[in-house]
Specification:
Blueprint (H helix, E strand, L loop, with lengths): L9 E6 L4 E6 L2 E3 L2 E4 L5 E5 L2 E4 L4 H22 L5 H14 L10 E7 L5 E8 L5 E4 L2 E5 L2 H11 L6 H16 L9 E6 L4 E6 L5
Antiparallel strand pairs: 1-2, 1-10, 2-11, 3-4, 5-6, 6-7, 7-8, 8-9, 11-12
């Protein structure tokens, strides 16, 4: 078993109409042994930008603290909030710096990027463990249940979903996918990001 799969866990991000959603399961385990049913994998970067970090549990904490430090330094130096595209390249360069002894994490980034006109545009991206960026217009997945997430998301996702419909779609996608994977599940957390607010909901799931 790869180190990426050792602690389990899955993350998915989806695009809606002027909104994005990012969700993850809450299980932390060592292979088939469950340890926690409340493990955080999705973290806020700014008010309208979140990052999901599926992979090795210890690297989740380490890498989030590194990103937090670099974002704070960017904010102090540039005197403005970091945009999702800039943060994605920061994530990519951070991972590529450690390509010979990589962090076992495949980040998923979701947020709203501000255009020069002041409008907000949905943005999602993912990278592999050495920082190769995958931009998407519909959804991105990562983690041990990603083959199942791809299958369900392909069937359920539609363009221009409103925030409530997007929440329903990403929730059903995640819950149905992790039910088919022994190393994911045990509840889920969903963040729906709109230009006005972030709606966070915790979902109950099967605990077997």
């Amino acid at each position: 078993m790869s180190a990426l799969e050792y602690n389990g866990g899955s993350v998915i991000a989806m695009v809606g109409k002027d909104c994005v959603a990012i969700a993850s399961d809450l299980r932390l385990g060592t292979e088939s042994l469950g340890i926690s049913s409340n493990f955080q994998r999705v973290f806020p970067v700014t008010d309208r930008l979140y990052v999901g970090l599926p992979g090795l549990g210890t690297d989740v904490t380490t890498l989030y603290e590194r990103f937090r430090y670099r974002v704070n330094m960017y904010t102090i130096k540039e005197e403005r909030e970091i945009q999702p595209e800039t943060f994605t390249h920061m994530v990519s360069s951070t991972l590529y710096e450690h390509r010979f002894g990589p962090y076992f994490i495949e980040p998923v980034i979701a947020g709203l990027s501000k255009s020069p006109t002041g409008a907000f545009k949905p943005f999602i991206a993912a990278t592999d463990l050495i920082g190769c960026i995958n931009f998407a217009k519909d959804f991105v997945v990562a983690g041990i249940a990603s083959p199942k997430l791809f299958g369900v998301a392909e069937g359920l996702w539609e363009p221009d979903l409103e925030p409530e419909d997007l929440f329903e779609t990403i929730s059903q996608t995640l819950l149905n996918a992790v039910d088919r994977d022994a190393f994911s599940g045990w509840g889920a957390i969903v963040h729906v990001i709109t230009k006005d607010q972030v709606i966070t909901r915790t979902l109950k799931a099967r605990m077997d």
